[in-house]
Amino acid sequence: MDLVPALEEPLKKVLGPPTAKVMAEHLGLHTVGDLLHHYPRRYEERGQLTHLADLPMDEHVTVVAMVADARLHTFASSKAPRGKGQRLEVTITDGSGRLQLVFFGNGVHKPHKELLPGTRAMFAGKVSVFNRRMQLAHPAYELLRGDSDETVETWAGALIPIYPATAKLESWKIGKAIQTVLPSAQEAVDPLPGTLREGRGLVTLPEALLKIHRPHTKADIEDARSRLKWDEAFVLQVALARRRHADAQLPAVARRPSPDGLLTTFDARLPFTLTEGQRKVSKEIFDDLATEHPMHRLLQGEVGSGKTMVALRAMLAVVDAGGQAAMLAPTEVLAQQHHRSIVEMMGELAEGGMLGGAEQATKVVLLTGSMGAAGRRQALLDLVTGEAGIVIGTHALIEDKVQFHDLGLVVVDEQHRFGVEQRDALRGKGKQPPHLLVMTATPIPRTVAMTVFGDLETSVLDQLPAGRSPIASHVVPAADKPHFLARAWERVREEVGNGHQAYVVCPRIGDEEDDPKKAGKKKSPEDEAEKRPPLAVLDVADQLAKGPLQGLKVEVLHGRMHPDDKDAVMRRFAAGETDVLVATTVIEVGVNVPNATAMVIMDADRFGVSQLHQLRGRVGRGSAAGLCLLVTEMPEASAARQRLNAVAATLDGFELSRIDLEQRREGDVLGQAQSGARTSLRMLAVIEDEEIIAEAREEATSVVAADPELTRLPGLRTALDALLDEEREQYLEKG
């Protein structure tokens, strides 16, 4: 039987089943290699307490300190009525501050014997507040005696590693487990090519693992970190470079617009001139479309920078060249909006095959899940015969029944809402892989784009078209200053009085059944502090109509309404028949009503930064200035308020996306979970390590160009296999 390589050895063989089970369930660690890559979160110098003022509430902390005094109190309670209840209070100090520990009941005997004044120990527990003082109740502790060999050995380093831990497994137990497996680090296969490592003066992988877990000096930690960051950046960029390389080998039909065709006619009829940015980005796209490999381009644009116009011109170029173009929108409301605005922009050019249609005209069809059978049949027929050059739809476009005559371009709007599988299914509809243009209005910092969308070329639209108005944003602290909220409703009435319209956005619809699944979810401390549920559209609309906005025409819009009703509400609002639209985030993307100038976002702290930026982009779309009011009950010092202040302070989406990212962490950059909970990046912080990512991308591109199969780099192949386990491999494949 072959020996299992040391790093693939299951932890249960090395550490025993009980510890291994906790590590697998709570920390996702299964093998020796997983454990070696579970890096310390920080390091304590002997006796240096996490500064007591910095102890985070409700979090699990590990502190190193000395016992200052210990007192045993007896008290009467329901369980011990005759004054037999016991409480041990221990005060610990690090010289700069003090913290109280409490133990109750039978749990007092062992600490009472062991935690004598002058004893040094590590303590771990959850920080809580009792009688306005911070305390740790029943903390786990480990004495730092320095007598038994093991303890001396474990704590010999002046720097004590503190690991990301759980209530079930304290940091020092993880530390001891790592001591057990550390010798295996010698067998770690190095993924970095030798020339690259030497050229950049990086330590070997075994040395980096040793230094990260057992540093003797701070320089050791730095050496290890810079090496391990390179690993993460490089292996990830190689995965993306291989995919770009494979895509470049695929065939595609080159699509060049004819000199006096549909695109030229359309451009000649435009009532305005394109911005410099729109022209530049269009040229990049047309150059890509003219090649015989599929275009893969990400078009980032600020809210309202005219992305739809750029995408429409790309679609017209493809129709000109005899192909068809499909635009995928994340919601029906948005698909209908796009259809309406594209047909309006094209005028008679969208009336192909109809009386009064222009000579070069084509047909623009809409395809959504809720269409009637007859309309749907006609749309499908127009697609398969090639009668329709442009189709706009929701994921209904991906169904098996939908056949194209010759699909040449796929435009995906609001990338972050589309699963990779869905994009893949649509790409499979072309006879050869179609060109792909992905649009997003959530600006993505360059580094994230290189990491998450590393297989796409990026174009950025960062100037607003002429005639767009700036948006003033203000935070309305409803709890501290209720009169500010009253003033907000007056401002809405003033806007309506001036002939404009307003949105009021709420986090919830308000007709939800209490979902037992949601009820069981762990709440964040901020939610705990704020017991009331988020404000709901139906309640708020009712209160406004009867109260501060009485006499105005108020309507509601949310995702659970029937599509026809949603469409009717949007049409009335667009036509100016409704004064105030109270909605959920269904209006977040693509809704275009130039006459709407004010937006009030209720419980704004319940939304993410990029979502607030998106929502705000719905006002100020005409010539009148926009106003966005962020209403919150969060206290001034809270992180949520800081976030809202940041949104109010800048209209620059790229700046906001950086703030957002720094707060949320990167999410599992490769996996589908783009949230902060699980991250495949343990060392690399996408924003801080911008240079490493850019350099790693260059190195990866040249390595893959020279050796696409990585035949000469077995260590790198092994690291790639580990990074791209089955699910991620497919995920990357589909892009």
Summed over residues and divided by their number, the pLDDT gives a mean of: 80
Return residue spans where pLDDT drops below 50 for at least 5 consecutive residues: 148-157, 514-530, 666-679
Based on secondary structure, the structural category is alpha/beta
- Helix amount: 25-40%
* Strand order in the sheet with the most strands: 11-12-10-13-14-9-15
Number of strands: 21
Count the helices. How many?
A: 27
Global Rg:
30 Å
Largest sheet: 7 strands, parallel
Our estimate of the beta-strand percent is 15-25%
Terminal Cα span? 39 Å
Tertiary shape: globular
What's the structural blueprint in terms of helices and strands?
Layout: H1 11-15, H2 17-27, H3 32-36, E1 42-45, E2 60-75, E3 85-93, E4 98-104, H4 109-114, E5 120-130, E6 133-137, E7 140-143, H5 149-154, E8 159-162, H6 171-181, H7 194-199, H8 205-213, H9 218-249, H10 262-269, H11 276-289, E9 296-301, H12 307-320, E10 324-328, H13 332-346, E11 363-367, H14 373-385, E12 388-393, E13 407-413, H15 420-427, E14 435-440, H16 446-452, E15 457-461, E16 471-477, H17 482-497, E17 501-505, H18 516-519, H19 525-529, H20 537-546, E18 554-557, H21 563-574, E19 580-583, E20 596-601, H22 609-616, E21 626-632, H23 639-649, H24 653-664, H25 690-706, H26 714-723, H27 726-734
Parallel strand pairs: 4-6, 9-14, 9-15, 10-12, 10-13, 11-12, 13-14, 16-21, 17-19, 17-20, 18-19, 20-21
Antiparallel strand pairs: 1-8, 2-3, 2-5, 3-4, 5-6, 5-7
